[in-house]
Each structure stands twice: as structure tokens, then as C-alpha cells.
Automatic annotation (TrEMBL), chain B:
UniProt-recorded name of the protein: Uncharacterized protein
Taxonomic superkingdom: Bacteria
Annotated region (Disordered), positions in chain: 74-96
Low complexity composition-biased segments: 80-96
Amino acid sequence: MITRVSICAFLPLVQYPGSIENVLHEVFGTPLDYEVKHTIALPAVAANRKEEHPSMATNDSNVVVDQGQSRLSDLWTKEDYWAIWLGFIIIIAGICIYLLNPPAEYGEKIAKANSVMAAEAQRAPFKTIAYYKAQDDKAKVKAMDSPTGKAVSAFLKKPGGWSSNPLDSFVVSKEAADAKAAANAEKAVEAKAKADVAMAAAVAAEASAADAAFADASLNDGATAKIAEWRAAAAKAKSAADKAKSKPVNLLTSLPLLMAGMGLFFAIGMKFMGKSVPGFLLGFVGVFVVACLATMMGGQATMKYWGIGTEAWAIIIGMLIANTVGTPKWIKPALEVEYFIKTGLVLLGAEVLFDKIIAIGIPGIFVAWVVTPIVLISTFIFGQRILKMESKTLNVVISADMSVCGTSAAIATAAACRAKKEELTLSIGLSLVFTAIMMIAMPAFIKAVDMPQILGGAWMGGTIDATGAVAAAGAFLGEKALYVAATIKMIQNVLIGVTAFGVAVYWCTRVECREGHSVGVSEIWHRFPKFVLGFLAASIIFSLISGSLGPDMGKVLLDQGVLKGLTASARGWFFCLAFTAIGLATNFRELAHYFKGGKPLILYVCGQSFNLVLTLTMAYIMFYIVFPEITAKI
Amino acid sequence: MRQSLQHTFMGRLAAFGVSVAVLWALFFVVGPRVVAHLPALQHYGEVQDIYGIRSGQLYYTDVEMSQQAEINSRSTWRFTPTGPASGASGATGTAD
């Protein structure tokens, strides 16, 4: 039912002073069509939206409102542009540190490893011990291991892991580190001995297969199995050896410096945007301290069982404070959710490398890039037409969160369609709950039905939301499942770029306009969330650089250099700050309104069920019917 | 008025304390007991320690094993093991 109302109807609403755009924005909670200055057409239900969802009407401090026109001054007065400028300052710094003048030894080591793998591939019909060793040697070449890289990593270092004493997250004395190393030394020796035994068995099995000129299939399979056992034992030995090398840590000097640096970094934009810099800096101290606590909690040893990471703890601690003792007033000027998220998303753009989609060949593209968009769009349509979700933004954020890659996709989509912070929080909460269930239940089920590791890995990689949970669930099954699951998820991660751009365009052209009215190019430009351009630019630039460097040097200089060594760490901090701000500004009661009728839960369950069926079907077809010969070699 | 405010503040402080206590009990009392009774969950934690994974990690660049996985997957396509006589004696195709 459509109700046409005159704008005069709103004039008595004296509680919303300011321009008519502000009045409309306050009442409807989302940016409206620019022609609504005269008359508006809206569902009758929306007229009562304020009563039904007071939060939608009154708590939109984190929704960006376009003014319907663009000015040159937007470049230095709007947070979307500041997110781009700040993001690119970090990206350019990363390029200067890691990409310019890389040492020649990187290329030499890669060439040597590749020549060994090429020779071994010709020698045996399976991955030999020498093949794996060369592959491991190649993986050890990292630009971030340079002295400059180590210094940058130390500056950006987050509070670490701990078991029983939270202070271990910030400070580990030399004595404590030595004691920990000594306690783990014996385990390391035992693990190494087991790895050596497994290695000897693998060498013997491979030699037997070689003696038969690799013509005996049973000997080849025997060698493959023994090599897999050696790989598993070697991974355990490496983990034990790492624990026996415990080093002292002291973040009490670097964290205050980092806080001051990041505070001043964001304050530049705050100054130009006309906001109070002293107020922001004071509040930033509070936000940063809570963010550190969240990082500390995310690093607690038992959190690995539940899939609760830093971002989730940032929301939990923030909401705990906001809904009990209350968020102190002095912190509120620093609750710049959008500013932190958008800057983090521009940096995330640099991690969206399109050459990744061919990492596991055509099967990966079909499982991650064909199934995922089908599930995303189907779930969104299901939400709109069958469930009749009241909020399109909540619908699309849950659909993207569930079908693409959990929290990171939810953040990008929410920012692209200007969802409210409560909608983002709800989507992430749903994702966390189902990830915690699926990351345990799926590997258990796969093992119970004796599903092949490759198929199981591909299935989990395409369906479990969180990237870390996918890798963990894959590792539960074995190394091959881990490799396939993590690679499929990585390819799916890249889809974030397309999703964010597609949602931003769809929202500008189809959602935020009156029915039946076409939207011009200039109008689209006015409405388009500009930070998405920074996100896409970073993605395109880095994809081109990665493509020109090739997969090996690209991995050394970009993945293990610019990204891992700088931008990903900074992005992690910015997202943590954003989620802390979300938590500190969220009211439990407001959140409950969005869960009304349980529709978000139904949407997630139905969408994920469809995802599970479609992904398993596609994975089976691609890995076992179309490309079985490659599958056998993974 | 002052008493009422103080009461409200004390109530909020109590709510904060209770919430922290509930979370603490959930994660540090109930959680470990659940893990202790479920071998599958213990194995799940062990493999995360072995491979340096944390299930709460957000993006592939956060997961170190993703890098290793990508190298392995790319190697399979670039240097597909074929053996001396291509196709004649490959590993028998049991994909695991």
C-alpha cells in the first residue's frame, strides 16, 4: 500500500529542527530521494516506522547522508574522501618500504625452488619430499622479514596470546620467556624425533617407488601416504619448536606510541571536517584502551574453540560498557564508526587481489565465484519477496555476510549500502553463532561420512563464513583439506570487491530512488559512497602490481610485504577501533528491534542451507567429475 | 535526587560486575569443561596450534596458512606431477 503525503505533514514535527532533509532523514532513517523535497511516496508502514523502530529514527549518527550535490570542498571536508587519503598514505608508505629495490636474493631463491619442483614433477607422478621441501623454501621468502619490515611489524604489534594471566598479552619478561621455552623444549625434541622417524619412512617409501621407476601404482600410493604422514609430523615439530623459542615481549612502550600516532593520524581528517580535535583525541584514548582489551581477549587461548576474535570482543566489551555503566561522555567524540571502517576498507581494497581467483584453477572459480553470487542474490530476493524483510540493508548485509566471507564482507557491504551499526552488529552476531557451530559440525560430519578431504575442504571453504574458522576446520581434517579450504576461502574473499561495488551501485540506482524514476549519472555520482572508489582503486592498483610481479614475487613483496607487513596490520587496528566504537554506541534494546519476528535468523538459515547444497554439488562436479586428475595431485 | 543518581550508578556498576562475572564463568569455567569432555573440540584446538591458525581471524591475509595453501594450490597447477612417462603411472587418483 502506497501513501502519498505532503511535506507539510512534517512541519509540526518541531522536535526535529533543521533543514527539511534533516527532518526526513530523522523520520525515515535512510537517505531519501532528492525530489522528496516536494512530495514523497512511501509505504504506509514507513509512516509508523519511528514508533516501531525508534532506533531507526533517532540513532543515525553513523549513517552517511548525501546532500544531493558535490562540491570541490568535499575532497577535504567529507569522511569518505578522508578515508581514501588516509588509506592511500599508508598504502604508499607500504609501497616505498617493501616494493622499491627488493633484494636480488628473493628472485634467486624462488627460481631455485621452482626448478626443483619442475624437475620433481617430471621425475615422479606425485609430490615428492624434495618437491615439498622446495615449496616450503619458497614460502619462507618474505619481504616483511627485512630489518625495516621487522621494525614496522614491531610498531604495529597487537597484544598477544595468553592462557591464564592477561598481562602476558602485553608483557613477558626474559625470565618468564626463558621458563616457557624450557618447559616446551622437551616437547620440541620429542616432536622432532617423531618427525625424523616419519621422514625416514617417507624417504624409504619414495625410494621403493623410485626403484620401480614410479610404474607401480600401489608403491606410489604408499609413498604418497607416508609423505602425508611426514608432512603432518613436520608441522607438529615446527609448532613445538616455535613454542620452545619464546621471546620476551613488552608492548607498554609501543602501544602508547601507536595510540598517539593513530590518534593524530585520524585527527588530521577530523580537523578538516570541522570537528573538535582535542575532544576526539581525548576520546580516542578511551576507544584505543577498549580496543586493546578486545585484542587481548581475542588472543586468549580458549577463544580458538569458539571462533571469537578481536572484532567480536570489541563489540562485546563496548556493548557491555555502554549498557551497564554507560559510555563516558568524554569518549563519545571519538566514536567515529564510519571514519574508522571506511579507512580500514580502503586498506582492505589492497588485499583484494584479483589474480588470486585462479589460485586453484577453474574448480575454485566455479565453487567460489559462481556459487557465491547465486547464493547472495537468491538469499536477498528470498528475504525481500518471501520473508518481506523490513530493512533492505539488513537483508543484503546478512546475505553478503552468509554467502561471501562473514565479518569482512558484512563490513564492506554495510558501508556500501549505508546500513546502520545495529544491522551490522546483528549480522556479525548471527555469523559468529553459525560459524561456531559449522566449524565444529562440518568437519565432524565430513569425517563421519568418510567424505574425501578435497571435497570436504572445498565444501567448508565455500560455506563457513569466517576465514580463520575455515582454515581451522580444514586443518581438523588434514593438510589437504586445509589447503583446499583456505584457498577456496581466499578466492571468495576477493569477491568482497565486486560485492561492495555492486551493492553500492544497486543502492544508488535502484533502492534510494522513487519507484519508476530513472536516476541520472550525476545523481548516481552524488549518492555513490566515495570511499568505495578508494577501495576499488587500491584493489585494481595492487591487482595490477601483483599480476606484473607474477605469483611468486607478488607473494613475497605484496602478500608477505606491503600487505602483511603494514596495511593488513593497520586495517586490523582500524576495524578493531570501529567495532569498539560500534559497541560503545549500541543499545541492547535498539538491537532487539532489528531481530523482530526472527526474520534475520530465518534468512540466514535458509540462505546457508541453500549454500551448503549448492556448494557441495558444485565442488563434487568440479573436483571429481570435471578435473579429477588435478584433484588427485593436490 | 543525589541518592537516586547514586542508586542508579550503583545499579549500573552492579550490572557491569554481573555481566563480567557471567562472561568470565562462560569462557573460563563452563568453556574449558565443555572442551575437556569433547575430544573433537580438543583436536580442533590442537590443529589450530599446530598450523598457527586462530578461528576468529578475519581475512585471508590474517591467516598465515592461507599463504601456504595458495602456494600449494598454485604449485599443483604449475608443476603438476606427471612422472617420467606422462600419464602412464600417476598416483592412482584417490584424491586423498
